[in-house]
Specification:
The protein has 10 helices and 13 strands. The strands form 3 sheets. The chain has a 6-stranded mixed sheet, sandwiched between helices. Strands 1-2-3-5-4 form a 5-stranded mixed barrel. Strands 6-7 form a two-stranded antiparallel sheet. Helix 2 packs across helix 6, helix 6 crosses helix 7 and helix 9 crosses helix 10.
């Protein structure tokens, strides 16, 4: 079947998976080469499953496996696949509109791409355990940096029967997620799942969260069937067991596409300065009022950020989390940026020299 000039992208066989006029235009050069489009639904050890107009085909990824880990093909990519062959090969993939990237847990200073071309980033957070606002802010920074619109979903709401307590928990998350909707859901009672289904009905959504956050149960609720394996919640701590082991792309019956991901034990930043700024937008607004444009918000006179903390307008926890994520992001970027490494070393030497001078002045009786 040819895809070079379909009558309408809305009636295209791949429309349920996100195919539109813009993707069609991007694909035109590959269609001229006799290649067919498809969306990657799963990647596994040098091969991937690609949804084409004729169904899912298994394709080899040898042509799209560069040394740069951020350029390897991943779930959510739109691929240009050979029309025939045994094996069939993915020859290229289209430029990504969005990419969710984190740093790996290794010491090799590498980024890892988790999902491509997502419009919504659904961050699942379990109410079965104590909220970790810092981790939520970390997920949000990566989501904003990816180019997707984040949404925080508090799962297992049935475990918090007191409405006042639940309201306080939602308010805590809203404080940590300015500009982001916060939704409570329960896959057991069905609470909130209809609202979530309406959100994900348009575009592609990637489902993110730590192990046991209830992502697979949530995915099944959206799919209307037990497609994703689910294990029972542990009695000892209320956490679910880790079940999803690969990233899978699934078309939802109510419209839209869902990418389910394995639980993330570590959520390291990867060149996410803009994302951090978006998460802490109120701090950035205060910083614009500081006396000095290069204010570090540590002890400088006229610091509007510190004044906001002292007045209670800005929680101290938010400022500490902001500093932590900025430092972490700077370290990650410095590992691949020689100039930034040199700047950091220079600043460190200046601060060390200043500290030694202050120490000497103090012990000489002049301080």
């Amino acid at each position: 079947m040819s895809f070079s000039s379909p009558s309408s992208s809305s009636s295209h066989a791949l429309a349920p998976f996100g195919w539109d006029d813009a993707w069609e235009a991007e694909f035109a050069p590959y269609a001229a080469q006799g290649l067919v489009p498809g969306r990657v639904v799963r990647v596994d050890r040098g091969q991937c499953d690609v949804m084409t107009a004729d169904g899912i085909v298994r394709a080899d990824t040898a042509f799209v496996t560069p040394h740069d880990p951020l350029r390897v093909i991943c779930t959510g990519d739109w691929a240009a696949v050979e029309a025939a062959g045994n094996p069939r090969y993915v020859k290229a993939y289209l430029p990504r509109r969005a990419a969710f990237v984190r740093s790996t847990s290794s010491q090799r200073s590498e980024g890892q791409i988790l999902a491509a071309n997502a419009d919504h980033a659904i961050i699942a957070v379990s109410l079965a355990v104590e909220l970790d606002l810092g981790r939520i802010e970390r997920f949000l920074a990566l989501a904003w940096e990816s180019g997707a619109q984040p949404l925080v979903v508090l799962t297992k709401a049935d475990l918090v029967p007191d409405p006042v307590t639940l309201s306080h928990l939602v308010q805590d998350v809203q404080t940590a997620a300015p500009g982001v909707d916060v939704l409570t859901v329960s896959s057991l009672t069905g609470e909130g799942t209809d609202v979530l289904a309406a959100v994900v009905a348009s575009g592609t959504s990637v489902l993110l969260g730590t192990s046991g956050a209830g992502k697979s149960t949530l995915a099944n609720a959206l799919l209307g069937a037990d497609v994703m394996a689910v294990q029972a919640t542990r009695d000892v701590d209320g956490k679910g067991r880790h079940t999803t082991t690969t990233r899978n792309l699934l078309a939802l019956p109510g419209g839209g596409v869902l990418i389910d991901t394995p639980g993330l034990r570590g959520v390291g930043l990867w060149d996410a300065e803009a994302g951090v700024g978006q998460v802490f937008s109120e701090i950035e607004e205060y910083a614009a009022e500081c006396r000095f444009p290069d204010c570090a918000h540590e002890a400088e006179p006229g610091c509007a950020v510190l004044e906001a903390v002292e007045s209670g307008a800005l929680p101290q926890r938010r400022l500490e989390s902001y500093r932590k994520l900025l430092r972490e992001n700077q370290r990650i970027v410095a590992k691949t940026d020689a100039r930034l490494r040199a700047d950091i070393r220079r600043d460190w030497r200046m601060k060390s020299a200043e500290g030694r001078a202050n120490y000497a002045a103090k012990h000489n009786g002049r301080f």
